[in-house]
Amino acid sequence: MGKEAEGQATWSAVEAYVKDCVIMPDDALERSLIKSAEAGLPEIQVPPGLGKLLHLLARSIGAKRILEVGTLGGYSAIWMARGLADGGKLITLERDAHHAKVARDNIAHAGLSDRVELIEGPALETLETIAAKNEGPFDLVFIDADKQSNADYFAWAVKLARVGSIIIVDNVVRDGEVIDANSKDENIQGVRRLNKLIASESRVSATTIQTVSSKGYDGFSMALVVA
Asked: Among 3.10.50.40, 3.40.50.970, 2.40.50.840, 3.40.50.150, what is the CATH number of 3-225?
């Protein structure tokens, strides 16, 4: 086994250990993963550690309004919705109708349909609708959709936030390839456009955290809206 494979095996083993020891098994979350896999959804949901972090962030700030861009099978939506304050609401956006159907079932099974609204359609269109309906401001925004549009999603997140809101963007390290300015990968260039926007955005203070997990080497960015 090469060093890279050994590293991946270790990251996955530690994740499993932490999941069982600290995060604890959860029937609704496990079912959502099983049903998503059975339905043929790509296994690109957040790892358990990030799901729990999103939950803890929602609870720590007393989030009453959460926005998610990219639902997939509803795994991260379940984590965050469970962290909502009493009377809170999570709006999650999903472009793919099949993904949305699976997510609705998973969210309903978790007993969260009364707290989660899933809106289908391209996010850049549905975000305009959300803004027009004055659904914000959102206390927490989680962006985990197509990376080419990251900068656009982030710009909307800032518009729909308030001072003190937190914005999280996932998959921003991408095996370290984010440092390649000449990359032909649109996902990499999408992340680089996001970083350029964050660097120029005076209304936020941000950082990026590198992570390793069963999903490999990646990371997420966290921004606090300060003005």
From this structure: 3.40.50.150
